[in-house]
Amino acid sequence: MMNCREVFETGLLYHHYANTAYPLTPHSFMQYRLNNRDEIHDFVVSEWQKADALSLYIHVPFCKQRCKFCEYVVLEHTDDNIEDEYVDLLLKEMQMYAEILKGKKIVGYDLGGGTPAKLSVRNLRRITDAVNTLFDIEPGTVFSVETTPVIAANEPEKIQALYDLGYRRISMGVQTVSEKLLNALGREGSASVYEKAVANIRKAGFQSFNIDLMYGFLYQTDADFGNTLRYAVGLAPEHITLYRNRYKGTKIESEAGGVSIYKAVYQYRLAYSILTDHGYIANVGKNTFSRVPDDYGTSDYLTKRVIYGTPYVGMGLGAQSFGMDYLAYNLGAAEKRMERYRTAIREGRLPIQDIYRLPKEESIAKMVSVAFYFAFVDLAAFKARFGLDFCEYFRDEVDFVLQNKLMELKDGRLYLTPRGADNINGVIPLFYSPRSKEELKTAFAAKSLGEENDERLFLDAYNIDNYFRPSLAVDIAVFAQQPDAKQILLIRRGDHPYMNHWALPGGFLRSDETLEQAAARELREETGVQNVRLLPVGNYSDVARDPRGRIISAAYTATVDPAEVHVLSGDDAIDAKWFALEVTQDGGIYMLTLRNDAKTLTATLHITPEGTEILANDGLAFDHAKIILDAYRVSAV
Ligand code: SF4
User: Fold this and answer.
1) What is the rounded CA–CA span in Å between residue 229 and residue 376?
2) High-pLDDT (> 70) share of the chain, %
3) How far does residue 33's CA lie from ligand 1's centre (Å)?
4) Which of 28, 82, 128, 219 could form a disulfide bond with 23, CB atoms 3.0-4.6 angstroms apart?
5) Tell me: the pLDDT tens digits for 483-522?
6) Which atom number of ligand 1 is nearest to the Cα of residue 114?
7) Cα–Cα distances in Å, from 460 out to 245, 449, 463?
């Protein structure tokens, strides 16, 4: 059996898979599967006798087109006839469950998808009426629904109808506002659509409005994501939910290897900083941010599922159900087609494709994995669900996360720390079942993590122009030792900035040379001197050192024989002269005097442990007084 350190490291290695989605693969639970179809109905009935309260999730699998990152059960290009028939079947499935769930309280309800708002108002009403009449809804339960921006923008009457039907929380997937990325992911969207959608949602009366955003895409830059976050904040939803792209089972799964854990961590940190700066609150590591005090930001269905492990029945094509001790997937989950779902319902059978009788350790792993969606485990909720003390049951794991400062105990909850949030993919699998920990190591061992193909993917997507790049220059302090004084060569600038000021010779780095080669070239071109030893002086990177922009200079010094120097003032230099250099010191204050027959230049500098400051400067360009002083000190050693 792997120890905690091994599990943690394996989770970080397979970070695209070690997340809140449990089980790890569609085949993980095969050993727990009920293989006799005739037993399913009675098994489900007996399982629900164990629970008093549960949530409902109704899946509407229709989308105009399938986004490339989508991992859900979705049917494209459907028409009204197919959708009418689907709702007929769904209502029959709801009736079957109404029988099984008699006397149970419904404490959460989500109409999700797919795109539920794609249905006609008539069909939305049929589903909602059935929920209200067939099930015993706990008063105060907030009905939650999902829409796309395009539907919310173009069909205000439907958004109004959803509000009038009793839905009070609405969630809209924006994902990204980068047009380039939207196109690459096969999604629609534009600023005018989002703004109109928000206006319609608000006009309908919704006061609990969530926007979904995604990160961790191969072709998504940090700047893109930052813009998306700031844009979403500008739309002023009550809640913003982040989804890190999960590649497993999507059309872009092959891109996963090009996205490092560092990119995902950095993008989450970026989101956390932007959202909390704008008043959206979340404990670190949590995905949903809310600006409503004491609101988790999620639907009742999800909040209760995440904190309390509240069981739920999923109805509709491919929907997932999690009972007290079972997990099931409806027909259509694998093949993403309606035929077998239709046949089962017509035959009066629950449309279940796979159902697993879970041992306690698997139910626990399922609940705790999902708890990390909020980045904490509620110890009392765990005890209420499983009758076990969390810290006892996971004694080694809890010791590990506390000792390594990945989690901390606060108010009866075990919370991720900032360190834990960065390493969430290592923390979550610590609470997997022993079987899943082994599976994590073996099931993904064939993935080409960190190998040549992943690096190629990364490099293909990498665009250096997306990142800030300063200009690089070299400056050279050329000294000549005369018997009576140290001389330094300066050029007079013939162009802006600092026109007519005196500067060190130098120039910009070319793309095909090192800094040392650039310094040697500049020295040769401007003085005719070659084959001298260039000593590094330092790097000069004050943000405002050059008014043309961000230019960082690497400075060098050389001592030459003045007889060999043939000064060639060129480019932007209109003169070049030797100056006698005199340096005097009073504590940390240094005075430079540079003098020749025609001109005297002075500068006063203060050297402190933090750096050098120019206090006064008469006639020298840029921060060259600093470089001259530093070069003088280097050459004096
Ligand atoms: S809109 Fe949502 S559910 Fe539909 S395909 Fe795109 S991601 Fe999947």
Assistant:
1) 24
2) 98
3) 29
4) 28
5) 777 999 999 998 899 999 999 999 999 999 999 999 999 9
6) 3
7) 19, 16, 8
* CB contact at 8 A, 376 and 416: yes
**What atom of ligand 1 comes closest to residue 148's alpha carbon?**
1
Query: 101, 48 in Cβ contact below 8 A?
Result: yes
Written as one string, the DSSP assignment of 339-400 is HHHHHHHHTT---EEEEEE--HHHHHHHHHHHHTTTTEEEHHHHHHHHSS-HHHHTHHHHHH
- Ligand 1 lined by 58 (C-beta under 6 Å): no
d(CA 425, CA 13): 9
Secondary structure (DSSP) of 261-300: HHHHHHHHHHHHHHHHHTT-B--TT-SEEESSTT--SS-H
Between CA 87 and CA 61 the distance in angstroms is: 11
Q: How far is the CA of 575 from the centre of ligand 1 (A)?
A: 67
Distance 115 CA to ligand 1 centre (A): 7
Residue 275: CB partners within 8 Å, gap ≥ 6?
Answer: 229, 233, 240, 282, 289
Give the long-range contacts of residues 593-602, CB within 8 A, separation 24 or more.
594/488, 594/490, 594/502, 594/620, 594/628, 599/502, 601/490, 601/502
Nearest to 554 by CA among 448, 630, 500, 452: 630
**Helix, strand and coil in the chain, % to nearest 5:** 40, 25, 35
Q: Are 53 and 230 in contact (CB under 8 A)?
A: no
Rounded CA separation 300/601 (Å): 74
H/E element, 90: helix 80-100
Answer for the pair 542, 623: CB distance below 8 angstroms, yes or no. Answer: yes
Q: Residue 14 corresponds to which tokens in the numbers above?
A: 């397979």
pLDDT one-digit tens code per residue, 35-88: 999 999 999 999 999 999 999 999 999 999 899 999 899 999 889 999 999 999
Decide: helix, strand or coil at residue 9: helix
> 3-class SS at 224?
helix
Q: Is the CB of 509 under 6 A from ligand 1?
A: no
Give 549-560 pLDDT, tens digit per residue. Answer: 999 999 999 998
- CA 219, 220, 222 angle in degrees (round to 5)? 140
Nearest-CA residue for ligand 1 atom 5 is: 66
The contacts found for 506-513 with CB under 8 angstroms, 24 or more apart, are: 506/473, 506/474, 506/475, 506/476, 506/553, 507/473, 507/474, 507/571, 508/471, 508/472, 508/473, 509/471, 509/472, 509/473, 509/474
CA dist 548 to 409, 494, 497, 599, Å?
Answer: 52, 15, 8, 27
* Bridging pattern class, strands 407-410 and 326-330: unpaired
- DSSP state letter for 141: P
Q: Whose CA is nearest to atom 3 of ligand 1?
A: 114
Q: Distance between CA atoms of 180 and 303, rounded to whole angstroms?
A: 34
Tell me what the mean pLDDT of segment 10-22 comes to. Answer: 93
Ligand 1 centroid to residue 186 C-alpha, Å:
10
Q: Scanning the structure block, which residue is given the tokens 């504590």?
A: 587
Looking up tokens 């360009």 gives 621
Residue 116: CB within 6 Å of ligand 1?
no
